[in-house]
Amino acid sequence: MAGLPALTDDVLAEILVRVPSPCDLARATAACGSFRRVATSPRFLRRFRSLHAPLPLGVLCPDGSATAASFHPAMPPHPSAPAARALALAADFAFSFLPPPARAWLLRDHRDGRFLLDRALAGGSTAFTDVAVCDPIFRRYVLLPPIPDDLAASVENPYLQRGGDGGLQSRSSEIFLASCGSDAEGEEPSLAVIWMACCRGKLVAFFFSSESQQWRALSPPEHYALSTRRVMGVRLGQRNHAHGCFYWMITLTHRWLVLDTRRMEFLVVDISPVLSGRAMMFSNQIITLESMDGWTIVVVADVFRSDKRCVLYFYKFMYFSDRWQLQSKINLPEEWGYRFRGIIGASEGYLFIKLDHPKQNLGDPVQQNVTYFTFDTKTMQLGRFCEICSGTVSEAYFYTGFPPSQSLPSV
What we know:
By secondary structure, the chain is α+β, with helices and mostly antiparallel strands. 14% of the residues lie in helices and 34% in strands. It is built from seven helices and 23 strands. This is F-box domain-containing protein.
């Protein structure tokens, strides 16, 4: 009889791990104490999270004069709305637990429940900053060591990648999180941070791992393709990710900068054959998705057309050397032509599309808003995801994760 309670918990765990989604698990664990005890154990949560994709929970807007701005949760009737509300109440997206002053910290990236923020150093450098990796649910953070002087010496007059007014939000570096595999016994992935700067004639990149606790240099691509308009500098577009690779459009070109984190190698890919004849004014006109069978799906938004329509083209490839295969072409609603402002993210077969406020409301500040819609790539159905009551949202992060009850400390 001594082993009966453990056996009961094991049976419950086998039942609960088969619950279809994190939202269903949250409802099930509210039913009784036994379910909640089993479903909130770290061992169960690691197993459950490995089998289920994170939920689309909202949009983070880092713009503004204060830290990290605001989190806008998914709205009903989206199925993630209850979990999004719970997250908004439980997490500290003001990051008030970071070392003061709070207004100095700027949100740069998020991944696997971790958030990357940095702040300008006393000397005013827009490239080298204090870097913190945070967990806003458990209110924890770690400060990364500074980049060593011998590595920093290779960075010469980097071009601005964010801002441009020399203020607290100007940055001359691209810094982001990357997963580098799982630890033993199903623990959280190790912490990895990539730091990049575009200098004249070269790309400089460094890699930090929580395992080594050191920064090391990454080899740039052999022929790094600078923008043809050098006087404007080299700016990287929206960062996309699929199957362990990060992608940036090199602004004013039809080229991709790619970082393969499985090999920690850079390469430049010419994608002009696909984009030829299409005006690519914004980097969020192209986004990458993952397919279950290993293909990388690329969605290209053709916006600046003579017929004022917005058309989405879906391509796929397996390797960089492949020729992209056209899967489908989709016409978005005609009235979206002048409101479409790009694709901010993708999750489980859905695109998340940003629309500006309708033209007829431009004179009414109460009605001005930015709306984010979901677009089901299989059924072609549209749905409202969330809304931001502001006429000026220049940057936004699509946020996916798990409800607070299914979260584990990530830092």
